[in-house]
Amino acid sequence: MKIPKTEVIIVGAGFSGIAAAKKLFEAGISFKILEARDRIGGRVYTNYLKEDLYVDLGGQWIGPTQDRMYELCKEYGISYFETYDEGKNILNLRGKIRTYKGIIPKMDPVSLINLDILMRKMERMARQINVHTPWSHPKAQKWDQLTLEDFLRKNSKTKSCYEVIKIGCETIFACELHEISLLHALFYIRSGKSLDCLINIQGGAQQHRIEGGMQRIAEAMATPFRDHIIFNSPVEKVIQSTDHTDVISGENRFSSNRVILAVPPPLLKKIHFEPGLSSEKSELLDNYAMGRVGKCFMIYQTPFWREDSFSGQVVSDDPLTHQTLFDCSTVDGKYGILMGFTIGNRADEYFGRSEEDRKKRMISQLVQYFGEKAKDPIQYIDFTMSDETWSQGCYAGLMPVGAWTTWREAYRKPEGNLHFAGTEAATVWHGYIEGAVRAGEAAALEIIKKKNKEEA
């Protein structure tokens, strides 16, 4: 079936594609959005279990300097609230459980000093990175040939220091630390303001949650142009000609002047392009794996741990369960929800088990931390984007050793009538929803500027 020509085709109705569409809609430029799923939101996915109970199976937090997200909340009248951050945190290190307050766990003095020095060193190094050209740093080649794991091992003088910084970094990057280069880690930290910001709740990237779930924002953004979205339409082929570009999905053929591709890197690789993508972009896509993270929610009648002065936050090196836990209860505290991140190899092992086994394992862990009350949840639910066909991982694509200095800006660089978005194309808040929005808007603005220039 031939669809009448439109000016722009957007592939993907995640936050990046919707943000691009919003800009085009406001500029009066015609477009269609092709979305493989039956919903919008992409790597953001709010699951309503009851009318007054939901969980964010994908991205869920916003924090200071994520200016576009706060502006969107204001524009659409969507409220946000503080992530619960009161009381004692828990550290489970080599089977020994202890409590602490603040961001730094209780450890022996040597490990504490080592951890402070190491974090400060990473901050200093990250501040030197230009987020637009991370490969331009004088030590870029050296840092890009070193894995983050090798760097942390070299600079950790005690086992406790290494284990704690390892858990923190796994939670930030959603991968095993040998899977990314030190340069990518420093770029990511700089892109998200600072290491302290990425780790923290108060004043950090986890400070606020959205009332009603993160997907509400994408839904509100898309409301004026909902009829422009064609669901259940995975793109199989993109054909560029001299005067137009065709996008093929199943039996449907869409024609446009330009295309914005706002999908995760593995999905981009599955699309057949004529002519083919540049060798640089193709080579990068061949080496561009996604992060691996599972979110596990244990739901209770009340957030009972608060009564015992626990924050619900846990940091653990237990290889059988979760790296970190957070209190993700409803804003009114009507339901108590503890959410655990299981990441990298832990996620692979965890989701290789049955759901019943995963539930039993998490309950056992929570009883160990919060006592017998944790034995009686009202529901357990978990989810990993790695199992979702149209995401294949989360939070973002991972730049492996040598990638930044070899392929540089290849991912976000336009090719002919093709423009690239998604959080992987962002230089600010790369890997976050804020980055996805910024990248989508940037792709749309490229098209708007080119159109204005052509019409001048």
TrEMBL record:
<feature type="binding site">
    <location>
        <position position="341"/>
    </location>
    <ligand>
        <name>substrate</name>
    </ligand>
</feature>
<dbReference type="InterPro" id="IPR001613">
    <property type="entry name" value="Flavin_amine_oxidase"/>
</dbReference>
<dbReference type="InterPro" id="IPR036188">
    <property type="entry name" value="FAD/NAD-bd_sf"/>
</dbReference>
<feature type="domain" description="Amine oxidase">
    <location>
        <begin position="15"/>
        <end position="448"/>
    </location>
</feature>
<feature type="binding site">
    <location>
        <begin position="35"/>
        <end position="36"/>
    </location>
    <ligand>
        <name>FAD</name>
    </ligand>
</feature>
<feature type="binding site">
    <location>
        <position position="235"/>
    </location>
    <ligand>
        <name>FAD</name>
    </ligand>
</feature>
<dbReference type="InterPro" id="IPR002937">
    <property type="entry name" value="Amino_oxidase"/>
</dbReference>
<dbReference type="InterPro" id="IPR050703">
    <property type="entry name" value="Flavin_MAO"/>
</dbReference>
<feature type="binding site">
    <location>
        <position position="424"/>
    </location>
    <ligand>
        <name>FAD</name>
    </ligand>
</feature>
<protein>
    <submittedName>
        <fullName>Flavin monoamine oxidase family protein</fullName>
    </submittedName>
</protein>
<dbReference type="Pfam" id="PF01593">
    <property type="entry name" value="Amino_oxidase"/>
</dbReference>
<dbReference type="GO" id="GO:0016491">
    <property type="term" value="F:oxidoreductase activity"/>
</dbReference>
<keyword id="KW-0560">Oxidoreductase</keyword>
<comment type="similarity">
    <text>Belongs to the flavin monoamine oxidase family.</text>
</comment>
<feature type="binding site">
    <location>
        <position position="16"/>
    </location>
    <ligand>
        <name>FAD</name>
    </ligand>
</feature>
